[in-house]
Every structure is written in structure tokens, then in C-alpha cells.
């Protein structure tokens, strides 16, 4: 098991958030090359770092931005298919990721609001089962790899729908088992190691199925588009961005 896997498995997330970017950026120069590219920074690498607590994925973590496959996929999608980088938008970003945080804050077009239960990077701290904002408040809502952690994901989805403006959109990436259409979850499973075996991580309470996940989003009131990033980008660009298993982006809209 690699160092990154050990750290992400046993060191609390809030501790990693405070120092991981500083540690990795000191060695990032050793990964310079031309095989892979991080679209968030424009930097290229001969290889990226492996990442994953149980299922270690090669070339997953870009050392300058700390982006993973899902972050690069979402960025590439927004660049190609949205007005995110130009239009005046109010955005709610739940569980804000380091690779996006400083860049989104600098975007003059964004009224950027961040929230999390305990992240040191968040502006507001709250339980996303009860989002403390008015109905129809945000043009964009983003929450990546959050829904697999919450007790009642359907309630959280409804909260995201409630605070999104009509005509607004969001991206909610989650771990998905593409071998199973159904979501695996059992509230009686509380042992961390059993959760890790069943749901890929000790603090996950479910593992989504590829048919059930978009169905739950639709049940919450969203229109859902499942975007094939390999089709959108082409195979060469998809591989250069090292998107790995993050082939599908889940775009939601509030009609």
C-alpha cells in the first residue's frame, strides 16, 4: 500500500486538508513530463500519483492542484459545455475541494459560497440535511463525493433541489459500482472495516448503483443528464487528462 493510500485511509480528512497540498507541492516538480495533463492548472506530468484507500488507482492525483479524476472530468465538462467561467452566477459549493477553491474564489463572475459540516476551507458550517439558505438561492450547486456519506441522501438531494434556482444546474459526482444497477446500503452496517469492504471506504454508508443513482436524483425533482466524457472529449484527450474510471459526469437541472 502506497504512502498516499495509507494517509487517506488513517489520517482524518480535516488534518489532510490543512497540510497535504503543501507537502505534495514540494515534490511536484519530480513528476514533470508530457504524458498527462491537469486541465485545472495546465501543468503536464510524466505520471501522476496513485490514489485510493482500498482500490489504489494509478495516475489519479495531480500533485500541484491535488485534483483527482472526478475533478478533472468536471472541469473539462464545464469548460466545454457550460457558461460557468463567464456568466454571472451564484454558486453553492458543498464539501469544497482544494483544487477548485482558490480558482473559484478568484472568478469575478461568481458569487461563491462554500459549506461543509467541519471542513476548514468552508465559509459556512452546517449539516446538509438542512441547508440554511432560502429556496431558489443558487444558479449552481456542486457537491462531489458527499452523498455517499450522509444518513438520508434523498433528503439531502431534495435540499439541493430546494435551494437551486429554476433553470439552475448542478454536478454531484459519487462513487458508483458500474457492475450493479442497484445501490448497496444497509444502516445496520456500522463496522468501519465492513463498510470499507462493501462501500469502498470506512466512512461511506452506501455504494451507488449505476441505474439507481440517476433515478434518485430524478425522484428529488431534478432533470438528469449522464454525460459520457470519453465521447465528449475523444479517447486521446480523455486519456491525457487521466480520467480513469470517471467516464460519466452527472449533470442535474431544475426546470
- Tell me the span between the first and last alpha carbons: 46 Å
CATH topology of the largest domain: Rossmann fold
| Rough outline | globular
Strand content: 25-35%
Number of domains: 2
Number of strands: 14
Radius of gyration: 18 Å
The CATH fourth-level homologous superfamily of the largest domain: Vaccinia Virus protein VP39
> How helical, in percent, are the residues?
25-40%
N-to-C order of helices and strands: HHEEEEHEHEEEHEEEHEHEHHE
Biggest β-sheet, characterized? 7 strands, mixed
Which architecture of the largest domain would the CATH scheme give at its second level? 3-Layer(aba) Sandwich
Structural class by SSE content:
alpha/beta
CATH class of the largest domain: Alpha Beta
Strand adjacency order, main sheet: 7-6-5-8-9-14-13
Keywords:
255 residues; 7-stranded mixed sheet; globular; 9 helices; Rossmann fold; alpha/beta; 2 domains
Would you give an account of this structure?
There is one protein chain. By secondary structure, the chain is α/β, with parallel strands linked by helices. The chain has two domains: 3-69, no CATH class; 81-233 and 240-253, Vaccinia Virus protein VP39 (Rossmann fold), CATH 3.40.50.150. Helices cover 32% and strands 25% of the residues. The chain has nine helices and 14 strands. It has helices spanning 3-10, 13-25, 69-81, 98-106, 153-163, 192-199, 212-219, 229-233, 235-240, and strands at residues 32-37, 44-45, 49-51, 57-61, 89-94, 110-116, 124-125, 138-143, 164-171, 176-177, 184-185, 206-209, 223-228, 248-253. The strands form four sheets. It has a seven-stranded mixed sheet with strand order 7-6-5-8-9-14-13, with helices on both faces. Strands 10-12-11 form a three-stranded mixed sheet, covered by helices on one side. The chain has a two-stranded antiparallel sheet with strand order 1-2. It is globular, with a radius of gyration of 18 Å. The relative contact order is 0.13. The model has no long low-confidence stretch (mean pLDDT 92).
Amino acid at each position: 500500500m502506497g504512502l498516499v493510500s495509507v494517509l487517506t485511509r488513517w489520517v482524518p480528512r480535516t488534518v489532510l486538508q490543512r497540510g497535504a497540498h503543501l507537502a505534495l507541492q514540494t515534490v511536484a516538480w519530480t513528476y514533470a513530463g508530457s504524458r498527462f495533463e491537469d486541465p485545472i492548472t495546465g501543468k503536464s506530468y510524466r505520471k501522476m500519483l496513485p490514489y485510493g484507500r482500498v482500490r489504489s488507482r494509478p495516475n489519479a492525483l495531480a500533485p500541484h492542484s491535488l485534483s483527482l479524476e472526478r475533478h478533472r472530468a468536471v472541469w473539462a465538462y464545464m469548460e466545454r459545455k457550460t457558461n460557468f467561467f463567464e456568466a454571472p452566477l451564484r454558486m453553492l459549493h458543498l464539501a469544497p475541494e482544494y483544487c477548485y477553491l482558490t480558482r473559484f474564489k478568484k472568478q469575478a463572475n461568481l458569487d461563491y459560497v462554500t459549506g461543509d459540516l467541519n471542513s476548514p476551507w468552508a465559509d459556512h458550517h452546517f449539516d446538509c440535511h438542512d441547508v440554511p439558505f432560502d429556496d431558489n438561492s443558487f444558479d449552481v450547486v456542486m457537491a462531489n463525493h458527499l452523498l455517499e456519506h450522509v444518513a438520508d441522501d434523498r433528503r439531502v438531494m431534495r435540499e439541493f433541489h430546494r435551494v437551486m434556482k429554476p433553470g439552475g444546474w448542478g454536478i454531484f459526482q459519487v462513487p458508483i459500482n458500474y457492475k450493479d444497477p442497484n445501490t448497496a446500503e444497509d444502516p445496520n452496517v456500522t463496522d468501519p472495516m465492513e463498510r470499507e469492504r462493501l462501500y469502498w471506504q470506512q466512512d461511506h454508508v452506501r455504494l451507488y448503483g449505476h441505474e439507481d443513482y440517476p433515478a434518485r436524483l430524478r425522484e428529488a425533482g431534478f432533470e438528469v443528464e449522464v454525460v459520457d466524457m470519453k465521447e465528449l472529449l475523444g479517447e486521446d484527450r480523455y486519456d491525457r487528462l487521466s480520467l480513469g474510471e470517471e467516464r460519466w459526469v452527472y449533470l442535474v437541472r431544475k426546470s
